Amino acid sequence: MKHWIEAARLRTLPLSVSGIIVGSIYALSNPTETINTPTEVFSWKIFGFALLTTLGLQVLSNFANDYGDGVKGTDNVDRVGPQRAIQSGIITPQAMKKAIIITSILTLLSAIILIYFAFGKDNFGYSIFFLLLGIAAIISAIRYTVGNSAYGYKGFGDLFVFIFFGLVSTLGVNFLYSKEVDPLLILPAVSIGLLSVGVLNLNNMRDEESDRKSGKNTIVVQMGGAKAKKYHYFLIITAMLLVIIFAALSDYRFDQYLFLLAYIPLTKHLITVYKNQNPKLLDPELKKLALSTFLLSILLTVCMISLISDIIVNLFLGGR
């Protein structure tokens, strides 16, 4: 069990649920034109299974990455980060393949239950769309490093992370509650997507040398370390600016800018990356950036709710 927990890479999980938290609390704090109260729009069932489905996708992605890079030989002595399960021989490729299949099935079941709680027997078109979206997310999580045409080896990993852990996560879960797309929510959705890509880019910067030797043509390998740094600055700074624009357009009061506290570790992270001359020393920054993104999502959701105590009381008394 210990080895499977390590293979699941728990340090990546907080980052993966950031969009779910923001999209859910936005639904809670912004009732629609047809749904007038927070208790009518928010559902603990949707929230719980959205978290469960997203965590399943993240664990599936981690298992698939371990398997794909392991059988391809990408994870070797040149790799800088922690040893992975197949690389160390703790878990066999056959066992990991079975784990990928089981995790895929469980994640799909969670997604189906989530869709049922969101749409019930009505909105059949929405149900089919989100089912196909869930299947696409599962396939994408696996195909990142698995197979001869793994898109992670062609530099498309950033796009996958941005779409599924930014846009789909934030806007998708909000739609499950509200049944509509709020254009304003696109700003924090893009922000979380960019920060998530930043974590992947940091990982690829760390592994640039070993990835190049193994033929894993990530964006970092294609553009080189110097440009990858500039790309990283763009991702993080743009994400920070978009959240500020979101707050301004939402007419936040002065006390609702509490989320700016998360900019302190993000700024320190940028300084560390700027000063870094040895990509191998970037490994600790992955956890810091992931946790900083999670912190930003938590603080932002707190700022979204003006009368947070009243709403929480209403949820416990009348929530579903």
From TrEMBL:
GO CC terms: plasma membrane
Enzyme class, first EC level, given as a word: transferase
GO molecular function: 1,4-dihydroxy-2-naphthoate polyprenyltransferase activity
Subcellular location: Cell membrane; Membrane
Main subcellular location of this protein, as a coarse class: membrane
InterPro entries from the UniProt entry: MenA, UbiA_prenyltransferase, UbiA_sf, UBIAD1
Pfam families: UbiA
Domain of life from the UniProt record: Bacteria
Pathway(s) it belongs to: Quinol/quinone metabolism; menaquinone biosynthesis; menaquinol from 1,4-dihydroxy-2-naphthoate: step 1/2
Topological type in the membrane: Multi-pass membrane protein
Catalytic activity: an all-trans-polyprenyl diphosphate + 1,4-dihydroxy-2-naphthoate + H(+) = a 2-demethylmenaquinol + CO2 + diphosphate
GO terms under biological process: menaquinone biosynthetic process; vitamin K biosynthetic process
Membrane-spanning segments: 12-29, 41-60, 99-118, 124-144, 156-177, 183-203, 231-250, 256-274, 294-317
Keyword match Transit peptide: no
EC number: 2.5.1.74
Keywords: Cell membrane, Membrane, Menaquinone biosynthesis, Transferase, Transmembrane, Transmembrane helix
PANTHER family noted in UniProt: 1,4-DIHYDROXY-2-NAPHTHOATE OCTAPRENYLTRANSFERASE (PTHR13929), UBIA PRENYLTRANSFERASE DOMAIN-CONTAINING PROTEIN 1 (PTHR13929:SF0)
Family, as annotated: Belongs to the MenA family. Type 1 subfamily.
Purpose of the protein: Conversion of 1,4-dihydroxy-2-naphthoate (DHNA) to demethylmenaquinone (DMK).
Protein name (database record): 1,4-dihydroxy-2-naphthoate octaprenyltransferase
Annotated organism of origin: Flavobacterium defluvii
Gene symbol of the encoding locus: menA
